[in-house]
Structures are given as structure tokens and as C-alpha cells.
Design a protein that fits this description.
Helix content: under 10%
Number of helices: 0
CATH superfamily of the largest domain: TolB, C-terminal domain
Strand content: over 45%
Number of strands: 32
CATH architecture of the largest domain: 6 Propeller
Mean pLDDT: 84
CATH topology of the largest domain: Neuraminidase
Radius of gyration: 21 Å
Largest sheet: 10 strands, antiparallel
Length: about 400
């Protein structure tokens, strides 16, 4: 383990908080303080917040939410990482409900030093190495000195963490080995005990990788072709366990066309694709189905997706919100459903009259697919310079 790479700020939770283990709505949250201005911290670019291209370490908490989705408290335990999520903070984590943890990849903070390259570096470049990488003699960098390489540069390496959803304490911190990659989304399989990520590691190729949460081993399982401008959706993904089959789902974009794809993890064969762009969460009350939030321009709609039947059914539409204008789905990990399938929470973006970007938290009640109602809508969080707590993802645990 690499405990030296992580700062764990932990105190005991009060006895009254022990009920958190009984279930409820949780999230990964970043508390913004007065020292973090909008220029220093972006909702969609927290990882690259510091000047000069370096990666800034941020302190995260586990958030607790009430029935309307509003934040009612943060874990006293916290964890400090260099976040590798491209969406909202921490949104590419995977929930392991059995162990009660989030699994999260993070950037390894490296300070480069002079190396011993086999070949002479070209004029204007310098041989530098990462001292934490075993067997690394160095590579040529286009800098006059190794000290000018930003901390966190070279995102191939990193750490694999497990974070307790009640305390916010990191219970495991392992260095990724093998073929480390930072996935846009990480998904956990109860059946295999592994996490999976779909990574576009080249302009015309991408692949599915498995992440061993005990050894840190990252293994590429397949290779797939894509267009040079095609992308993989940030923080959209999961594993659907059904009838002895584990289906990994993820979002892919091809130009202006979006598709939700399903791959059998045992055969690596694509078994289904559903057109459209969706924030997704599994509905435990109806095995084999997902609930998805999609943009309807204007507004959003809640849809039930049945991958094996290749069907999608609209359950509820919300064109406008009293909170502001231009309601749209933007936080790809901010959709959750309770075990009974009777309550759904989602975050959606809107703009205030002044033009500021805000997120609202919306609660829907489901009394069957034909009876869905809006129960509440509240401000969730705003721009970082409004000194709010940014919630990167929400989950029912």
C-alpha cells in the first residue's frame, strides 16, 4: 500500500451517525471554502485547478442526504486525492454496496528527477524519471530541467482506493500495476469482485479494463475501434447482473450520435445498444432494467431501459423548473433510486437570471410506471465561488 501518497483526516463519528449504515442517500462531496475562487476551481475541471498545469490535491467527504436529496451532513472522516474524474468531483467512482465502500482511481502525485536514459535526448529536452516507478530509467521530456515537469504529469500510473461510505475513511490504498489507466467511469461487479472501466487510450482505439481491488492489477480485456473524435461518456457506467450474466454498460458518442452499449463481461461481446444519451442507475425493484435521465430540449425525461428487450419507455417529463431556466441533465453520476423503486433522485443543471450555472436536486415518487410525480425541487449547489458543497455523485446505499 502507498499510504504516504494519501492524507487521511479522520475523527470518530458521533454515535448518532451510526444509523448511516442502515441505508440512505450518500454522495461524494467537495466542500468549497472561501479560499477557492471560481478561477481556481471549476465544477467540470477540479483536477486541473492549479496554475501551470499541475494537479491540485482536494479534500473530499462522504455526504449524507435527506429524503429530498439535500445535503444534511458530511463525514467527519475525509480523504485527500488528486481527482481523475473529468466530470463533477469524484463522479467516476464505483459503488460496492456489499462492502459499503466506493472504489476510486486517483492520480499519483510524482516529482520527477534526472534519469539515466539509454539514448541521448534531443536538443532542448531532458532525461527525467519518476522515482516511485520501479525500473524506470527515464524518458526524454521537452523541458530544460526535470523541476519544470508539473506534479501529476503522466497520468498512466495512479492509485486505487476504497473509501468507507459511512466514515469517509480510506480503508485501502493500492498502487495500480500492470496496464494502469484512469477510466472515465468505474463500475463494480458483485459476481466477479472486480471493477471495470472503458478507456479511450488512443485516437482510434479503446478497451475494457479490469481493476483488481486487492492487488491493484489493471488488465486490458479487449480492444475496440473508434473514430478519432468519438468519446466515452464521463461517469456513466455500471454492471447489470442478470441470470448468471454480467453486462457492463457504458455510453459512447460518435459525432452527434449517442449510444448506450452493453457488453457481456464473460465473452467481451456486445449484446445490445440503445440509442440516446442517458444518466443511468439500476432499478433494484425491477431486475434487468435501468432508469435513465435524458435531455428532451427543453427539459428532461425519466426513461425505463430494458436492454435485453431493447426497449425504452418514458415514465415522466419535466420541461421547466421554478429554480431557473434551461433545465438539462448534465451531471452524469447524479441519479439514484431506492431499493423499493418508489423514489428517484436526480441532479440537473439550470441557469439563474444572472446567467450563473446551478444544479438542482429533484425528487420523483413512483407508484408504478404510469404514476410518477414530482415531489420536490431544491437548489443543490452553485458555482464554486458561491461557497457551496459540490456533490459529484449520489447513490442509494
Amino acid at each position: 500500500m502507498r499510504s504516504s501518497l494519501l492524507t487521511i483526516l479522520l475523527t470518530l463519528l458521533p454515535a448518532a451517525s451510526s444509523a448511516a449504515g442502515a441505508g440512505g442517500l450518500r454522495g461524494i462531496a467537495l466542500r468549497v471554502n472561501d479560499a477557492m475562487s471560481h478561477e481556481a476551481l471549476s465544477i467540470t475541471g477540479v483536477s486541473n485547478a492549479t496554475g501551470g498545469g499541475s494537479v491540485q490535491q482536494q479534500i473530499f467527504h462522504i455526504s449524507k442526504h435527506d429524503g429530498s436529496g439535500s445535503v444534511v451532513g458530511l463525514s467527519q472522516g475525509s480523504f485527500s486525492i488528486q481527482d481523475d474524474a473529468s466530470g463533477t468531483p469524484g463522479c467516476n467512482a464505483a459503488l460496492d454496496r456489499t462492502r459499503g465502500v466506493y472504489h476510486k482511481t486517483a492520480i499519483r502525485l510524482s516529482t520527477y528527477e534526472p534519469g539515466n536514459c539509454t539514448d541521448t535526448c534531443p536538443s532542448g529536452s531532458t532525461c527525467c524519471k519518476d522515482p516511485s516507478a520501479k525500473g524506470d530509467d527515464g524518458s526524454c521530456f521537452s523541458v530544460p530541467s526535470c523541476a519544470q515537469i508539473p506534479d501529476g504529469a503522466g497520468l498512466g500510473g495512479g492509485d486505487l482506493l476504497s473509501i468507507d461510505i459511512d466514515t469517509g475513511k480510506v480503508v485501502s490504498n493500492i498502487t495500480m500495476v500492470g496496464t494502469p489507466h484512469h477510466p472515465p467511469s468505474l463500475a463494480f461487479s458483485e459476481r466477479t469482485g472486480l471493477a471495470y472501466g472503458v478507456v479511450p487510450y488512443a485516437y482510434t482505439e479503446y478497451g475494457i479494463f479490469s481493476y483488481n481491488l486487492r492487488s491493484g492489477a489493471v488488465t486490458q480485456l479487449n480492444t475496440m475501434k473508434k473514430g478519432s473524435m468519438d468519446g466515452i461518456g464521463n461517469c456513466i457506467g455500471g454492471v447489470l447482473e442478470l441470470n448468471g450474466t454480467s453486462l457492463l454498460w457504458y455510453q459512447r458518442s460518435e459525432g452527434h450520435n449517442h449510444t448506450l452499449l452493453f457488453v457481456d463481461l464473460s465473452t467481451m461481446q456486445e449484446v445490445q445498444r440503445i440509442p440516446g444519451f442517458y444518466m443511468t442507475a439500476e432499478d433494484p425493484s425491477q431486475p434487468g432494467t435501468l432508469l435513465g435521465l435524458t435531455n428532451t430540449e427543453p427539459g428532461v425525461a425519466l426513461v425505463r431501459l430494458s436492454p435485453m428487450a431493447n426497449t425504452s419507455t418514458t415514465l415522466f417529463s419535466l420541461r421547466t423548473t421554478t429554480l431557473g431556466s434551461d433545465l438539462r441533465a448534465q451531471d452524469q453520476a447524479s441519479l439514484a433510486v431506492d431499493d423499493a423503486g418508489t423514489t428517484v433522485w436526480f441532479a440537473a443543471s439550470y441557469n439563474t437570471a444572472s446567467g450563473k450555472l446551478y444544479r438542482g436536486i429533484f425528487t420523483l415518487g413512483l407508484a408504478g410506471d404510469s404514476n410518477v410525480t414530482l415531489k420536490s425541487q431544491h437548489k443543490f449547489f452553485g458555482e464554486p465561488d458561491d461557497n457551496t458543497t459540490i456533490v459529484g455523485r449520489i447513490d442509494w446505499v
